[in-house]
Amino acid sequence: MCYTFNAMEYKFASERANYADLASGNVFYSLPGHPAFPVRLASEIYQRCLALRGKERSPCTIYDPCCGGAYHLSVIAYLHWDSVCRVIGSDINEKAVQLAERNLSLLTPAGMERRNREISAMLHLYHKKSHKGAMESLSRLQDQVNQLSAVRPIQTRVFRADATDAASLREGLRDTFIDMVITDIPYGQHSEWEQTQAFNPAWAMLEALLSFVSPKSILVVASDKQQKIAHEKYQRLEKFQIGKRQVVFLEPLS
């Protein structure tokens, strides 16, 4: 069954919560020149995935094959810690992989402590109001991560790979069962597909992911409206548009 929505309607993240502590470039690291994925939209997408999983309630593994700095993966895990057990990201760009490692490290007490030292040093050197605000945000986030990690830590992994090549993905995924793929694929002025010979990179990515997903997996692809997000071995579950972005929900066919 396919449900299509022409315009965005928030079902789960219906209230405009204050996500200031999670802002990109505040505590979480940012990629200069690359707009961050909206936190509220990331939360809405994840909660729709949970709803599509139905009665399956076990903590899930989330993977993004075009993770960039893994900002949206990090905030999803932070906001929905109880239902996430593992977060995996990969990207073909080495600098993006390094940034993703730093962002996902903020889901651990050690990573938060390292970030505390970094922001404290900047505050001491420059005395900026923004650094003081970042320290206040970090204090709140750090307390939360310490408490949650003491109950159940979230596993993280980042590796460099071509999202359109199954062989490139295999070593990093190591036969991991993926419950959800949530990815914001390259488009627009700030990002583009790199080093791929695929005529349709989005189709090639979906083809490559077939080796690592099951009929129970949910895949979500955000892109510009010009890219066709479809593959004959997947069924579309939902689609909506918000601004210049389209978001498509898929599941593999048996």
Task: Walk me through what this model shows.
With 254 residues, the chain is an alpha/beta fold. It folds into two domains: 20-107 and 155-252, Rossmann fold (3-Layer(aba) Sandwich); 108-153, no CATH class. The protein has seven helices and seven strands, in the order αβαβαααβαβαβββ. It has a seven-stranded mixed β-sheet, with helices on both faces. Helix 2 (71-79) links the parallel strand 1 (60-64) and strand 2.
- What's the CATH superfamily of the largest domain, by name? Vaccinia Virus protein VP39
The H-and-E topology, N to C, reads as: HEHEHHHEHEHEEE
CATH architecture term of the largest domain? 3-Layer(aba) Sandwich
Supply the number of helical segments.
Answer: 7
- Low-confidence runs: 1-5
Question: What is the CATH C-level name of the largest domain?
Answer: Alpha Beta
Fraction of residues in helix: 25-40%
What's the CATH topology label of the largest domain? Answer: Rossmann fold
Q: How many independent structural domains?
A: 2
Strand content: 15-25%
Gap between N and C termini, in Å? 14 Å
Structural class: alpha/beta
How many strand segments?
7
Question: In which order are the strands of the major sheet placed?
Answer: 3-2-1-4-5-7-6
What is the rounded Rg?
Answer: 18 Å
**Largest sheet geometry:** 7 strands, mixed
**Approximate shape:** globular
Mean pLDDT across all residues, rounded?
93
